Every structure is written in structure tokens, then in C-alpha cells.
Fold this sequence. Notes:
Layout: H1 2-7, H2 16-31, H3 48-57, H4 62-70, E1 82-87, H5 94-102, H6 111-126, E2 131-136, E3 148-153, E4 158-163, E5 169-182, E6 185-195, E7 200-205, H7 208-212, E8 219-220, E9 232-236, E10 239-244, E11 256-258, E12 262-263, E13 272-273, H8 280-301, E14 304-307, E15 365-368, H9 372-394, H10 408-443, E16 450-455, H11 465-477, H12 482-496, H13 501-512, H14 521-528, H15 535-554, H16 563-584
Parallel strand pairs: 8-9
Antiparallel strand pairs: 1-16, 2-3, 2-11, 4-5, 5-6, 6-7, 7-10, 9-10, 12-13, 14-15
Helix pairs in contact: 2-4, 6-10, 8-9, 11-12, 15-16
Amino acid sequence: MINLARGKEAAYHPAYQRTVQYSREARAYFTGVGVDEFLKQFTRRESKELFEQRKAITAHIQKSLGYSLSRPFAKVPRSNYVKVLNIDGDKDGRRAAAFQTETLDKFTRRGLDRYVFERLLYWNIVDPNCFVVVEFAPFDFTREKAKPYAFEVTAEMAVDYKYSPNGDLAYLVARIAEEKQASKGKQLVERLTLYQPKQTVVFQQLTEDEIKGLVLPPLFKSFESEVEPGQIIQVQPGHYYLVSIPTPHNYEKTPAIRAGFVDDAENDGLSFVSIFDAAMPFAKKVLKLNSEADLTMALMAFPISVRYEDRCDAIGCNGGRLADDSTCMVCHGTGKKSRPTSAQEEIVLDMPDNPADMVDLSRILNYVSPPAESIRLQVEQLQNNFAQAKEAVFNSQMFTRQEVAQTATYHGIELQSIYDTLAPYARHLGEAWAFLCDVCRAFTGEQSKMVARLIFPQDFRFETSEQIFAEMKSARDAGAGSGVTAILQERLMERLLIDDPERLKRARIDARFNPFPGMDQTEIMIAVNSGLVPEWKRILWANYTSIIDGILLEVPDFYERPYDTQKQLVMAGVEQIQQQIAASQPALTIGAISDGGGQPQPNSAT
């Protein structure tokens, strides 16, 4: 800390300049913020004034490129992932539910789940070297629990950090510079915060006025492994820092995690790069081509006019200068009559009495525009680089115009390429979510072991319901077994009920009691009438809805009960219907006349 305060940027971590510059570039090329800084002047043909004019007329599309690239990543939270949140000894799940609502849902205004899915996506695009630190405000531990929240340390703020050999973050130093009012005006001071296991240490630089108000002279510390709250340390002449130690968090690790996960090849993974890094070369070309195309279109709309011009006829004007060597105010020194330069200009000539006196107007004025072929080429190159940016990130043409003419097999291969891109990103989100959950557990005083996981499928299943129906039909036509079609039916159910998790939960339980999984109606009717299916299965299939309705009247929380309890209740309903059927059937006595004077039996005397 003292070395950082004394050495400033020279003492920062080795990749500091790289991470800061990379963040500026990623933000510019994929959001359009500050992108003018990265436009290049063509000095051989473009003056500084013309370059500024080109920047002024350029309508940047970098934001559109960034949004286009981010859409597939936004599908990750829509996948059928599984969230596991279990606490030891919490048999009924109430403690886990309370932890979710009281802590995780209040981690930010959007809650931890949305923070991980939405905010980490943003940082993975524009600043993958941003750290998410978990902090908590002062609180009365005798009456309440800590309320953890996220504090984001950008690449510019993260001046030093170090990882242990096993990959854990050993420490992180964040620097915040701010202006404070002093007697001589505003003074820039810094605040250095050391995040580490167990506790956090803060060095706050003092202003000149604060230094003058000190009662005791400050201690000079060249290096101090142990510091105490309230110490004032002089790191160099005129620079003093007040040491403070907030309430210890007592977490066994540094409570921070880096947003990115893709290693930077430039420094062998010392820092990270954006998830759009593969598209960076094409994003730079898009910036260049779009600016040039806008300029070309402007020149097309306002072509250069080449014409013969009359000399200025103002009294005393000679080549734009007057007799006293002053500038002619009529022609402004050009020596020629002024003409409007807008494309809306209109030049009117007197109609001659004799048609033979008419002059070919094209010999008087001519407009020169860029060739149409060059404009077409620029637009094609711009569209091509836009598409190549997507292909570079996803290794797929799925999101380009070529997709419409391809086969279903081709689409399947392309989807797998997209899944290959999304899988490591989803895995990183799951790890980040689990880490932040564990930090929140420790900060809130939960001593029991917690299992927190986000489990993402290897196949993200972005098919539509229509595609799954077609896949089921193909499976049946190919003679696939009922096990295959049962899996497809489950995927279809998940797709149709993706926005209704409670109904999906019930549908999964209902599917578990289906005696003929994966079979269509024709196959079921053949099985039922074959005599090879037990009676209880036929009764369950024909009466399942009425059985469940009857159970819910007596056991409203049926779908919350363990499977063994559910099975007992369902089989009891089946047995009840079996008894009703048996009781409703007439008794059959062989070789005798039935009691009660009914119809004679087949073998009775007449």
C-alpha cells in the first residue's frame, strides 16, 4: 500500500496500462462511447479540418454491432439451467428460501441472479478486468445481519492485485481519486483500499488543510506489515495518509472476483480480454468503413460542381481586391461572383428569343460525384465485416442472412458452434454466482455449510417448439424407442412452460406418473387392448386427472410432498377406482339361476 502511494503508476501491477487501454478500446468499438478518438486521419489527402468534418458527419454503428453480438449471450439465462441452494440441516428449505429473499434478492436492486446474468455480461464486453467486490455497510450486529452489496472496481481503479498459485485472489488494491475542497481551492486526493482475507484496510490521503490541523506530527513509515486504525503515515514529504480498518469481514478468502475469464494472449493470461475480442479486428474495420461510407454518401448528396464562373462585377474589384488593397466584400476575395453551393440551388437563365442562341447547359456547369460502384463496394465491405464479426465470435453463420437457405442439418451444426461459445461463458457465470453466494453467507453470519450452484446444460436447447415437434415426428418415423420420444416430450414441455416454472414443476411430476411415457395415442391404445398391460396402469392412464383432482381436495400441497408420499397417494387413488369398478360389475354364477329373478344365465333351464 505504501509503495503504491509513493510510486504511483510506476508501482501498479504489470498489466495496468494494458487493461486500462483495452477497456477504452472495447467500450469504444462495442458501445460507441468515445469512438471518435479511434478514428484515423488519412493525412495524405485529408487535412485536420476535413478530418474533423468527417467525424462530425459520421453516424457511428458500433453500438449496433455490440448489441447484435450480445444477443446470443443474453439467451444463457433463458436456458433450462438448475439453481441449487441448500443449507445443511435445512430439511424443509425455509432457511435457504429466507437467505434468497433477505440477502440474495437484495444484493443489488435487481438481486444477485439478475446481477450475474446482466451486469457481468456488460463487464465481460467492455471491461473484463473489472473486479466485483462484496462489501457491507456498518450495522448493529446485536440486532441485525450484514447487508452485502456489490462494489465494482474497474480496470482503471484496480491498481494492484495478486493471485496465489492455486488461483485464489490473494489481495486487491482499489484506488479512488476525488477532489476535496481546500483553502487554496480543490485538491485531488486518493483513497487506497486493500481487500484481503479476514479484513480490509483503507489508506485515505489527507488534504493540506487536514495536515495542518493535526495535533501530533505524523509517523514516517517506509514499510509496515501491521497497521493500526487512526495511524497517520507519511509516505513521502507532503503526502500523508490516514489508516482505517472497517469491521472485519472474517471471510477466509478475498471477497472479490474478476468479471472476465478469457485469457489475454498478449501477457499469457495475466489479464483478461472481452468475450468479443475475436471480433475486435472487424469492429475496427467497421468503424473505418462506416466513416468513409458516410463521407462518400455526403459527397454524393453534395457533389462537387465544376463550372465557368463570371468575374466579380463589383465597382473597384480586381481579382477580389479593392484599390486600397482591402478585400472585396461582394466576392469575399475570390474575384468571382458567388453562387449557392447547396444541392437545392437553382440557377435561372433568360430564355433567348432565338432557339439557336440556346447554350448547352452541360458545357457551363458540371457536377462530379464519386462513382456509384465505389459506394456499392463500400457498403458491401461494411456489411461483410459486420457479418464476419459475428462469425468470429460464434464460429457460425446462424445469425447472418445466409441462414435462410440452409438445411435443418446445417442449422444443427451451426447451433453446436454457438453452444461451444456460450458454454464456457455460462460456466463462468455459475462459478461467479456460487462465489458471491458463499461470500454473502459468510457476511450474514450463516455458519452452516451451503451448497450453491448454477448448473447449465451442455446443450442450451434454443430450438423452437415447432422444431421439437418436427424432431419428434422424425424420431417416430425412424422407429426410435419410446425412451427417445419421452425425452423429446420433456424438452417440448420445458419450452412451452419456460415462463411458468410452477406449472412446469407440476407437469414434470405428472409426467413421472405417466404409465406410457413417450408413446403416442395409437401406441397406447394398442398396449391397453393387448392384455399385456397390468390393470392398474390402464386405470391410472384413463383416470389420472380425476385421481389428482381428488388428491388435491384432501392434500392441497401434493406437488410439494416427497415422491414416495406422492406415489402412495396416487396408488391409493388407483386402488379406490379398482374397487369401484369391481363393485359395479354384476355377480356371475355358473350353472344356476341368478338370485333376484333376473335374466336367465346362458346354461339355465327354460
